[in-house]
Design a protein that fits this description.
By secondary structure, this protein is of the alpha+beta class. It has nine helices and 13 strands. Helix content is 53%, strand content 20%.
Length: 475
């Protein structure tokens, strides 16, 4: 019981995927439009966020750097005068005496002589002194450049040194330096820093806010894009549905008068009182043949119209594909003999599969008739039905190979299009409307499989169909 349920679920997965992603050309087109609209608007939104963030980043940091540079320039200018002499004489060594007062734009400053010893300095928090001087001694601060450095401070007043309950935090400081020259000789270096923790935190908040807004607007963009694509597809869908309905109605309505016309021709043929000349017999045969062709065309158009609207029903059952293939080949053998083409069947003695038998037969008939039609007398058409390798054991492989005229490489992408015939002159001679392969592709698609073709001009063609199924084979 569980095995059968698993098989049915596996075979219904393609249909479930179609329901989720769109089973028809309109749903797929709408999904593509939604994706394109969303991608475009998301890129615009992303570029806008990046530009805003970058502009604010550059402007704010440039402003902070400009303030610190001006401060350093002002202080180094003052030190180039008599102020440095006063510092050297120890005038500012007493507590509370400073050559520069700390402001909101300055967290600390230190004047270091050539030996690396501090001449004078001040800071807003005492714990900064050892950290900054250590940075200076080990050369972590670059020459004549501004850089951001993380320093540790305490959130509250430090009553007991290294008290464990005092909370610590790391603050970002912008530090710069200026060299002091006297009589052309380097005598000291001025280091100064300002607290830029707020600016750093501001950019963290700004980045989080922009990301949140971006994701919010991204959701709105997807909804809006879906609405836009749906509205754009409404007139196209209506026009296409009217066209499909017309094709279906016309095809259905054509079958009745064609059947009546065929019956009338056959009745006239059976009239014993009417003596027909050879020319009249030829005309009657031609009329019957054209009626049959028109009837097949109407049936093909009706099948395609139903497949486009999703009305192609599947009736999956267990059956022996080996026996079905053999019966199908026997039915086509007379057509092949008339074309002097040899039919070859490669299949296991028994191959039980779970699929729609009628649809499988229709696929085989369409492709084999097509192969026979385009194979020259003396050629051969080979039908292979099998389970492929172990990694594809739940796949049914149907391959039709012929030694016919082949298909040009530039025409291969179009051979499954409706009414397309590669060799138009030969196709007109052999009959057909260019719908067979299009119908085969629609049936394969409805079965959840794939169809592909390989061909070389003058060497023949090979059509490969892979269908999902569960099978048991006996050699």
């Amino acid at each position: 019981m569980y095995g059968g349920l698993a098989i049915k679920l596996k075979l219904r997965l393609p249909n479930l995927r179609k329901r989720l992603l769109g089973h028809d050309v309109f749903s797929r087109t709408q999904s593509k439009l939604t994706l394109q609209y969303s991608a475009l608007m998301s890129l615009l939104l992303l570029f806008f966020s990046i530009i805003i963030y970058s502009l604010l980043f550059v402007l704010i940091w440039h402003n902070q750097e400009d303030k610190l540079n001006k401060l350093l320039d002002a202080e180094i200018t003052a030190l180039q005068g008599p102020l440095f002499t006063e510092i050297s004489e120890g005038k500012f060594n007493k507590p509370g005496q400073r050559p520069f007062e700390l402001s909101t734009d300055q967290a600390f400053y230190y004047l270091i002589d050539r030996t690396g010893s501090p001449l004078i300095g001040a800071e807003i928090q005492k714990e900064l002194s050892d950290q900054v001087l250590a940075q200076i001694r080990n050369g972590s601060l670059g020459e004549q450049s501004l850089q951001k450095v993380q320093l540790q401070i305490y959130e509250g007043p430090l009553v007991v040194p290294r008290q464990s309950q005092i909370a610590q935090q790391h603050i970002t400081y912008l530090i710069g330096q200026r060299s002091l020259y006297r009589d052309g000789q380097l005598v000291a270096t001025l280091f100064a820093g300002k607290d830029v923790a707020f600016q750093s935190q501001l950019f963290t908040w700004l980045l989080a806010a922009l990301l949140g807004i971006t994701f919010l607007f991204l959701a709105l963009v997807i909804l809006f894009s879906n609405w836009m694509s749906r509205q754009a597809m409404v007139p196209v869908r209506e026009a296409y549905e009217r066209q499909q309905q017309f094709v279906a109605d016309a095809s259905h309505e054509l079958r009745t008068p064609l059947s009546v016309l065929l019956a009338s021709v056959e009745t006239l043929e059976m009239e014993e009182s009417t003596v027909k000349s050879p020319d009249e017999e030829w005309v009657f045969e031609g009329i019957k043949e054209e009626i049959h062709r028109m009837n097949r065309l109407a049936s093909d158009l009706l099948l395609l119209a139903r497949s486009d609207t999703g009305e192609m029903l599947m009736n999956r059952t267990w059956f022996d594909i080996a026996e079905t293939a053999a019966q199908t080949v026997r039915r086509l053998r007379q057509i092949a003999e008339n074309q002097q083409v040899d039919l070859i069947l490669n299949v296991s003695s028994e191959l039980i599969v779970f699929q729609d038998e009628d649809k499988i037969v229709q696929i085989i008939v369409i492709m084999m008739e097509n192969a026979i039609k385009y194979t020259m007398p003396g050629g051969k058409v080979t039908l292979t039905v099998a389970n492929p390798a172990e990694h594809l054991q739940n796949t049914l492989l149907i391959e039709i190979c012929d030694t016919g005229i082949g298909i040009a490489e530039d025409e291969l992408p179009r051979i499954f299009e409706r009414f397309y015939r590669p060799d138009k002159s030969r196709s007109r001679q052999l009959g057909g409307h260019g719908l067979g392969l299009a119908i085969a592709k629609q049936i394969v698609k409805a079965c959840g499989g794939t169809i592909a073709v390989k061909s070389q001009l003058g060497k023949g063609s090979s059509f490969i169909v892979e269908l999902p199924t569960v099978s048991t084979a006996k050699k």
